[in-house]
Write a structure and sequence with these properties.
heterotrimer, A mainly alpha, B mainly alpha, C alpha+beta, B: mainly alpha, MetI-like fold, 2 domains, 77% helix, 0% strand, C: five-stranded antiparallel sheet
Amino acid sequence: MTVQEIDQRIRSRLVIKYNPRSFIVFLLLFPACAWMAFFYITPIAMLVYNSLAEDGLSILSKTVANPVYRSVFATTLEIGAASTLGCLLLGYPVAYALTVSRGALRGILLIIVGLPYWLDYVVRSFSWMVLLGQRGLINNFLLYIGVIDKPIQIMYTFLSVCIGMVQILLPIMILTLFAAMLRIDRRLMTAAAIHGAPPWKAFRTVFFPLSLPGVYAASLLVFISSLGFYITSALLGSPKESMISQSITLLAATLLKWSDASALSLVLLAITMAIVIVYDRVFSIDDLWGGKDA
Amino acid sequence: MHKTSHSFALGTSVALILAYLIFPIIVVVGISFNATTALRFPPNGWSLRWYEQLFSSSEWTGSFLISLQVGTLTMILSVLIGVPAAFALSRYKPPGRKLINALLLSALIAPPVVRALSTYLFYVPLGLNNTIIGLAIAHSVGGIPFVVINTVAGLRSFDTTLERAAIIHGAHPFIAVITITLKVIFPSIMVGAIFAFMQSLQELLISIFVLGTLGSPLAVKMWEGVRVGVDPTIAAASSMLVVLAAVVFGIVALAKLATDARGSARAGAGE
Amino acid sequence: MKAVDDVSLRVAPGSFVSLLGPSGSGKTTTLNLIAGFITPTSGDLLIDGVSVSAIPPHKRNIGMVFQAYALFPHMTVSQNVGYPLKMRTKLSATERQDRIVEALKLVRLAGLADRFPAQLSGGQQQRVAMARALVSSPRLLLMDEPLGALDKGLREDLQLEIKEIHSKLGSTIIYVTHDQTEALTMSDFLVVMRNAKIEQIGPPQAVYENPDSVFVASFLGTANLLPLGVVGMSADRLTGRLANGEMITIPTQSASSFSSGDAACLLIRPEDVKLSPCNSGKGLSPGLRAKLVDTMFHGDHSRVTLDLAGAKFTVQLHPAQIAEFNGSGDVFISWSAERARLIPADR
């Protein structure tokens, strides 16, 4: 066999194995996957491992069995659920208004919805104190018109925490719903009207059912986001309204009890993933930001 | 399309809800002009002293600089990593796509405290704690999903015939992407980049954990203000951020108008 | 399922070839194969005698015009047209500018160099696309239904302009269309495609007058097809039986080989038929009797629908001739024997 023949054999083997197309995909996708795996997944995995490695699963039972932490988890889920519901009730009309408006009006509405996102959480809480405090605007007003004769307690309650959280989460709900509603063919409503349905009925029987997948997806996003909140409940709520992230931060940053903090983080993560998995089973996660993958 | 009464009902309720959304902004801006040190609304008289304080205080300007550095780095990293990934995901539809989508989405909604704690502990042996680049890397984990989402959306509405037109007329496929595709979907990439920047600006817990003694980005400074004692300077700082956001929105809106005027290459510009 | 099945084609340099066929016939796929966007599973592509299968599209020195024009929206007309020069040549900016100006003059868009595509009308965008395809004097120009999105008047104007450019430049053009009028008026050669295969190739008039199959006959213009069974053949004539039992004799044509018992169709074009009313006293000979069903006014001609032995038959008349027929009743039809063609019936 000549050198050229051997060379030819090797070349043809290389050509077969080296598929230019999958190489390009690899090149494009690898940095993102590696980056996320190394700087996001690995730290969390290590956290999980560390919290389990010390005392094994008993650390979990120590934290989960502890009634204080149990109630904090329960409170977190309650606040999350209430906030999500509030966001849904308030956000749906706004998303609908965005869908039916056009041009400049839609642009203005979008800016109004998007602007509050950039306001710092701490400073926002102060504005709620101004409204809801003992000497805040509401109380002053009610005292002034004589409905009450001493200030009512609105701040540092479950309600005030929800008011604060809904205001923060509302843009997420609105924009996600809006993106989903855009997909609904508006001509279906026109068709319903032509076939005799009054506007409310057309909405109820045509538009609303079609918007439900978006409702589920947006609610999921908002609920899971709400589980991670800390500042709002810390500033607007009483210790009864403490959320789990506050406990974890306290344990980690102030008390330096790393393993307890890790264990609680693990449980929080597990709850979050469980919710997503249940959601996927029931509703099936599409490309949450794009509907069915085109 | 709707009876007037329905539109009226919708309009009023939406207006009320939006008022609820905007309320904190109004209050905060109002507080920032307060003449006294109290966080009062309506303000006790009007003054610009807190804005003067903001711009003259070395602590605040230092914070701003740190936020700017971290934010810019985050933005650059997110774009460099996210844009190619978006191309791969939307053009080639690789296997495991669903998993990658889930991964990216999870980074957006993962509990911040979990990310902060795990990142801090992970950085200890790497020596990345207390560094600007370390924080930027951590923030880019939250920025990349924004870039990918927006770039994928831009690619979806992009007409790939344009690339074919470029290629058949002499452009190497890679050059076609650079000269045509990236330029046409640039607004989408820009929106993603802006979100990446802004989420870094906003991020609190990871900054607290990771940047410890080096200094405090703006978000941290405001949080500490709660403990240390507040004056309306933080209201001024927050208002500045909102103004910055409004300016950025304005630029994006103008850019969108400009590209819409140039339009897409689809047939039917009117005949 | 093959998108293109065993297509073999030879195109002479400088000719205008149309790929004509219904949607899904494989014509756009063939064009994309020539361009190099798709690789064939087997076979080869030769340009100027040289195999280009291994050459990627951007190196094939081809110009292409797309159905939706595909103009780069972020570039001016000038930059769009100059793009191939930037990519393929090393000309200086002034040299490029000269060529751009020339190309724009060729398509009659001289003053619009600094506009953006969105500011142009559909017809203007199409011209820019052509200028871009021609600016680097490619050896081959591919056009994928370029006039499909335009309205009729504009389409006809641009058809003429494209033909003019073709004769001016002498480039080889391969043109895809589903519009048979377009193909007939513009091409030197027609390639009729159907279901991923080539049905017939030839100059427009030849294909129109001598279709090989029922499909080609019906696709190009209106076809009156009389089914008949071949009964007998002799040296110079062929006898067949029509559906209603009548016998008909036609002169045999070269190349078509039929034998007794074959099923065939007699093709007569509407414009080749003569009509006379039955009550006029003088019958035409040879003539067949048919029943008048409907008349339609088409502006420069009229179309008369008849019932001939149970089958639909269309005749084209000058509008002035309609007056002879008073809307219903029987008529005599006849045609000149050389104008009719015998085609094998669809399998």
